[in-house]
């Protein structure tokens, strides 16, 4: 696919996240936090009051405001679009809701080939989201990046097959193994929706993107390679415009999959807190060459006080530097190993960002 530069993309100036993601030396360690927009912020709770989660994702001014809140408060180096992995499916017409305290829930789970045939496909852009991106880009400073995102096909499929959040993903794995042709059909049906969703964000001017395969860590490497990797690879390679911007790929508990996941073709690999960054980099490098690392402070550490945060930050930066020195990585973007936990005090997040920027 020919990369056509979006006229809406800003020329970022001295932007630490973009510099680190493209292998340049940033002026400070870039940091953003997964789930930085959300319940940890009182201004988020006020803005969302009385508005269902999925409704808020289709309200341009509101989604822009919520996206910008953590950037204003914490001085993070990137905003992440306020949305959800199920928004493109909702926009395509699927009967899906986000239940407070639970997550995405589907009225009619997808279990058969006929169900897959009925799954709506996103045909075009989602105008409310594109309008929201325009508002965000107008307010961000030239050193602050906007990260767009999508859920990877496996993680999305898990919600569709299970019907909601799942502890063990047993129905999903059962479909993979007992009815592989139905599984592949589902993957093939989801992939174009994800590509369309990402392509329109890219066209609207996002500066980087993250593909969340949050639950991929539940799979064996063998199953990941057979049932998941081809589709994530297609998205990271063939989404129109995607090679214009840094591509970040992340999953939880993926220590054993880092090599295989890195083969999907991202520029940056997100690492959860379970694997030290230097070891993660060795696994990635061995599989697909040196990439930029993202991570990997344990989100629970934000409850432990600034001295602990400082100590852990130092350790993580040292491990990232060792990986870069060894030629196993080409840069480091600081993040948590997964999302901000909902009860995290907002002040602890602001202070952590300052500590990470300090040294
Ligand atoms: O009422 C509320 O406030 C709902 C909580 C909430 C929020 C704030 C949900 C429901 N989604 C979101 C926003 C969201 N979701 C963002 C943007 C905010 C930010 O990062 O700052 C992003 C990137 C997501 C992506 C997302 N949704 C993922 C991948 C990231 C991850 O955390 O691994 C996943 C797995 C989801 C599904 C989902 N949506 C919501 C919940 C509670 C869940 C998880 C449910 C489960 O445990 O299975």
Automatic annotation (TrEMBL):
HAMAP family: URO_D
Listed EC numbers: 4.1.1.37
Description of how the protein assembles with itself and partners: Homodimer.
Annotated positions binding substrate: 35-39, 84, 159, 214, 338
Pathway entry: Porphyrin-containing compound metabolism; protoporphyrin-IX biosynthesis; coproporphyrinogen-III from 5-aminolevulinate: step 4/4
Location in the cell: Cytoplasm
Reactions catalysed, as given in the entry: uroporphyrinogen III + 4 H(+) = coproporphyrinogen III + 4 CO2
Protein name (database record): Uroporphyrinogen decarboxylase
Swiss-Prot/TrEMBL keywords: Cytoplasm, Decarboxylase, Lyase, Porphyrin biosynthesis
A single MF term (Gene Ontology): uroporphyrinogen decarboxylase activity
Family to which this protein belongs: Belongs to the uroporphyrinogen decarboxylase family.
The gene coding this protein: hemE
Enzyme class per UniProt: lyase
GO BP, sorted A to Z: protoporphyrinogen IX biosynthetic process
Record-linked Pfam families: URO-D (PF01208)
Residue span, Uroporphyrinogen decarboxylase (URO-D) domain: 30-39, 147-163
Annotated positions for site Transition state stabilizer: 84
GO CC annotation: cytosol
